[in-house]
Design a protein that fits this description.
The complex is a heterodimer of chains A (about 280) and B (about 325). Chain A has about 280 residues and is an alpha/beta fold. Helices cover about 30% and strands about 25% of the residues of chain A. In chain A, the strands form 2 sheets. A 7-stranded mixed sheet of chain A has the order 1-11-10-4-9-8-7, sandwiched between helices. In chain A, a hairpin with a 2-residue loop joins strand 10 and strand 11. Chain B has 11 helices and 11 strands. Classes of the chains: A alpha/beta (about 280), B alpha/beta (about 325).
Amino acid sequence: MPSHAGTPEADPVRTPAGDSAREPLIEVRDLTRVYRRPRTSLTRPGEDVHALKGVSLTVHRGERFGIVGESGSGKSTLLRLICALDRPTSGSVTFGGREVAGLPERSLRFLRRSLQIVFQDPMSSLDPRMRVRDLVAEPLVALGEPVGDRVDELLDAVGLPASAAGRYPHQFSGGQRQRIAIARALAPRPEVLVADEPVSALDVSVRGQILNLLADLADELGLTLVFVSHDLAVVRHLCETVAVVHDGLIVETGPVDDVWEAPGHPYTRTLLAAVPTLEGFL
Amino acid sequence: MLTVERLSVRAEDVELVREVSFGIGPGERVGLIGESGSGKSLTALALMGLLPDGVTASGTARLGGRDLVGVPERRLKDLRGRTVSMVFQEPMTALNPLMRVGAQVAEVMTLHGVAAGRARERAVELLGRVRLPTPERIARSYPHQLSGGQRQRVMLAIALANEPDLLICDEPTTALDVTVQRQMLELIAEVAPALLFITHDLAVVASLCERVLVMYGGRVVESGPLREVFKHPRHRYTEGLLAASRLPPRGTRLATIPGAVPAAGRFPGGCVFRDRCGHATEACETAPELTAPDPTAPDPTAPEPAAPEPAAPELTGDGHAFACWHPRG
């Protein structure tokens, strides 16, 4: 049975069954993040928004971990904190045992090398004025590493022709642009690939190509995958463990098949019931 | 009620939509599906008379005895928003950010001759009808003060303001969360007079529509009753879309359609799908017609289906048409 909890303190994060031997890679403990809204009055400060209200989770090495939630749930805030793109109000995020929460950028080089991100919309995450060759090589250049034949290797790994290197992002379709974003993320040989809604902007036929590619790469390269999506069905296909985020809390976490078969929290049930499926109607 | 015959859309010498024909009866909900770049939205824009400059439509589309295609703009202005109206995908760009929501709903009525005071009252009623809480307060709000789901409800209120005969929805729920999408779909099903619903999400169509049109390369490649088309797809493109929509459990490969949709004007001659189709042969160099074969006559080109389904009443084969030389058996 999946564990579920409605309060931050009753949130024991479970190790997926049979994976107790795997070592924890990312550990998030009691994470909170409070944003302040812009002030609307001269005399009073802006309202506080509690985006995360005490979240804990563990991602093990080699695991495929899905984070599911709707807009405003706090899943993007959680993701930004895991990637050290934002500082938490309280709590800790460790990566391979090293604290990353609140570190200055110069101390985060190890994380930038080990953890890479693929964003939802490759049109806005790829610089339109850079050629694919330079886009894919950029993370290596930023880390001061030799590029060599790495670009050709990476384009091949994501199923793009070598001739793609000389072209610009706008010359590619949405699915191909997402392949470019994946090649770029894989350039520094990261341990962890974080994907934020990487298939939500894609047509269903192309979605399959990208999900297959992510699954293959995770297998071949032994990647740890942190996959954020609003779609529990996609997470079920790709991931083994899932955390359902709602209103700044993890309301349910556990092996994805258990959560899918027997959702324990009312919100998870609502979410599952809302996902339209073909099978349900045929 | 709506009858579309040989509707084509072209930009200079590129044919974007080719000879699309279909009908929608009163109260009927029809889905129009296909990948981006298949010509779905252009078909809808042609029916609304909203094609961009330099893009022209030909053929006929009649709604309740009135022509929608090839009529001058001043005649269209009278029909658009009254006889036929449309909900777009992105409510943030479709709504005027500088105008209160209530005034935007009222505006479509005053444009069609309703007195200003009456239109203001009706606007609040309509906002309540699309289940917005506290419609009086929402009417005084600006679009940015509302959530995505609320904005899309406002769009629906605007579309319904003049009691149109036909509602066209172009991906109205794609940008919404799944729980909000669910509520929006239920609402559309309840209020739509007759519906043409455009989406690339087959599961959404399955939950809403009775009949479906599958478009690819600017043509309708398959059409028919939804359950029949989805249970027994004949065109290889429909088969591919359905397979790709299924998300099998972990560890199994997802079915995909090889390649990507070509750019407009780059589709192959003959069958538009043949360069991505595993069953294509020389025969496919000739364009197949969209035809509804007599279900009782055995198809000489296809092997007999192994085990005939027990004849369910909805699977009579009525109106199930496809354009494929090598249909799925």
